[in-house]
Amino acid sequence: MHSFRYVGKELFCEEVPVSVLVKKHGTPLFVYSQATLSDHFTRLDSALAPLDHLICFAMKSNSNRAIIQTFAALGGGFDTVSAGEIQRAVAAGGDPSKCVFAGVGKTEEEIAYALKQGIYCFNVESEPELVRISRIAVKLKKIAPIAVRVNPNVDAHTHAKITTGTYDNKFGIQFENIEAVYARAAKLSNLRLRGLQMHIGSQLTEVNPFRQAVEKVSPLVVRLNNRHGFDFFSIGGGLGIVYQNALESGANGWWKTAAGKKILTPQTYADTLIPLLKPLGLKILLEPGRFLTGNAGALITRVEYIKKTGKKNFVIVDAAMNDLIRPAFYDSFHEIIPLVKKPGKLVSSDVVGPICESGDYFAKDRPLAKVTEGDHLVLLSAGAYGSVMGSNYNSRPLATEILVNGKRSAVVRRHQELTAIWGDESLAPWQK
Ligand SMILES: *Cc1c(COP(=O)(O)O)cnc(C)c1O
Asked: pTM to 2 decimals?
């Protein structure tokens, strides 16, 4: 489900006409529906009710404090990947004892910080990291809760830049070596071996890779649990969302695309995995990111120019790859719709931003309503890996962000002043 739909010609987010937000706050503008955020969390949470479980929101998908607070209020924990993210989660009302800390490059300062905060667990990605965590825990007289990330070598059938569960990438420890690594960890001081973790990739739209990974890893969990006395098994994130026909899917129930194809629902995910996970008798952790935030956000942009070349109809807009890098970075598809519905034939268009890079595009040869200068376009499903990946490239300020709740709306990231972009820079002394 999501909460962007036309009422007559006007696009609404929940009960707010998006054009009202655009008039007030300008563009580029991210708009988030709090109802969608809560709905997706609750659907997943309810589907998993038969299991003792904790949803740790992967905050790298969208770390705005208003979004974090929304999930903290629903009882969620957080999957973090830096000390900055832990601090951000805590600043937004998150409970550090529900935070897990992942990532292949945790620094000594980050490990010390996380230990002092009393996080739920370190998800460890290598043997040198185990040694480092143990050493710092001894020094601080703390017991470090750890889980090792297993790389199950299962192909998630997703884009190369978001697949993480095969031996070609930097994540986790090889399945075959895991038991030896735990045996070594058990001999290190001040570690508590709390569980096992995995995450096979992102934007998975079928249940099979999840099933395969859980089936492959479960016997290992049983053996390790017998030896070390685990509390949990984390099956990671990766639940996919609808990008194609996203508008239609919002009206029809989010799991359907207009082509009638169904993508993986939280219910199917839960129904498939619960029978495999329940017998383990452990708490199950999940780390969804995109599933919770993706469909909840849209990026609104203004049409600046129409540029016709012999071959192409370029729609040049005021948002760019610095606001939403997914098309340039992952070849991603975002559905693009007009803010105000337009009658007439669709025109094959390339939607591009103003940045001086050929990669700065949102769509190529896309049938689009005929728009003119001053019209607005909406990129749907922009709530995950959108604003968080924003940059100031070309000295462009970060986009304003709005949270909608029913009839209410609020700025949750204000317009960035240009001077803030270079505010941390200074001249060298000999230049003054
Ligand atoms: C990115 C990431 C996630 C979240 O992935 P989604 O596809 O957004 O659900 C979860 N766990 C780990 C370890 C990650 O790196």
From this structure: 0.95
